[in-house]
Amino acid sequence: DQSGCAMKVTTDASLFGAWVANQSHQTEHALDIGGGTGLLSLMLAQKNETNIDIIEIEQTCFDQMKKNIESTDWSKRIQCILKDVRDYSPTNQYSIIFSNPPFHQGQLRSDDSTINLARHGDELTLELLFKKVNELLSEDGIFYLLGPAYRDAETISISTNEEMYVIKKVVVKQSIHHEPFRIMYAFSKTKYPEQGQEEIVIKDKTDNYTTEFIELLKDYYLYL
Predict the structure, then answer these.
(1) What are the percentages of helix, strand and coil residues in the chain, rounded to 5?
(2) CB–CB of 143/184 below 8 Å?
(3) Which 8-state DSSP code applies to residue 20?
């Protein structure tokens, strides 16, 4: 149910959730920054036995998220937190942190303040996000991030400034005819050899989902 959230569930967010869940290691604690509907945490909870803290700043969306979480079989492992992540100071660090944060800065804004909060990174900039993640992530942890392709160079520059390094990057295209529009990243505090850039295309030339997309989403989508 997404009626209470300004930003609705998207295909790229679903793809990101499946990608994170597919490769994340088993761990005691994971953190979802900007939980929205609860989608990403619920996808991870189905594949990973970890306990997940999910933090959301907007009250109406938080209420929706909490209701969604509590209606599932995984609710005992997911703790919903109403808070600005900038003010969040838990006693533990996390081995997995993942986020689909507000994408845009300095762009056309809506008249709806809740949409602006969900869509625009004016309050939680990339710089502030990486700084906070660096504080919350364990030394051997992984930070998964979904971002717009047009901010790739900026994202890499900011992460490097925070001494966080790309270990995997997946470029996402709507179809083979489109330019990349999203990038899925995995960052670490340790500078491992990069695994190289991969690519996922959502739709093939006949406008059907590609094999790669189906493989990631088949455990979540009812119809593929």
Answers:
(1) 35, 30, 40
(2) no
(3) H
For residues 196 and 120, give the distance between their C-alpha atoms in angstroms, rounded to a whole number: 29
C-alpha distances in Å from residue 60, one per residue of 3, 63, 85, 159, 186 = 10, 5, 17, 31, 30
Instruction: Extract the tokens encoding 196.
Output: 């190289």
- H helix or E strand, kind and range, residue 168: strand 165-175
- Of 189, 57, 188, the closest CA to residue 122 belongs to 57
Q: Are 190 and 139 in contact (CB under 8 A)?
A: yes
Q: What's this model's pTM, rounded to 2 decimal places?
A: 0.90
Q: pLDDT tens-digit profile of 86-111?
A: 999 999 999 999 999 987 555 444 45
Residue 172 sits at φ, ψ, to 5 deg, of -115, 130
